Amino acid sequence: MQERKRLMPVGIEDFRELIQRNYYFVDKTRFIRELMDSQGKITLITRPRRFGKTLALSMLQYFFTSENAEENRKLFEGLDIERSGEKYMREQGTRPVVFLTLKEVRRPTYDSMLAMLSLTLQELYMRHRQLLADKIPDEPQAEYARRILAGMGSEEDMMVSLKHLMAYLEEHHGRKPVFLLDEYDAPILSAWENGYYKECIDFMRGFLGSALKTNPSLSFAVLTGVTRVSKESIFSGLNNLKVCSVLSDSYCDIFGFTQEEAARLMEDCGAAGKIPELRQWYDGYRFGWADIYNPWSVIRYIDEGCKFRPYWLNTSGNSILKDLLERVDERRKRELEGLMQGKAVEAPVLENLVYGDIHSNRDMLFMMLMTAGYLKPVEVWQDEEYMEWAKLQIPNVEIRTAYRREILNHIVPSQGGILLRDMMKFMASGDVESFSEVLSEILRDFVSYHDIAQPEAFYHGLMLGLSVLLEGAYHVESNRESGYGRFDIAFFPLKENTTGIILELKSAKSEEELEQQAEAALRQIEEKEYIAEFFRQGVKEVWKYGIAFYGKRVCMERG
Question: Do 468 and 524 belong to one domain?
Answer without folding.
Answer: yes
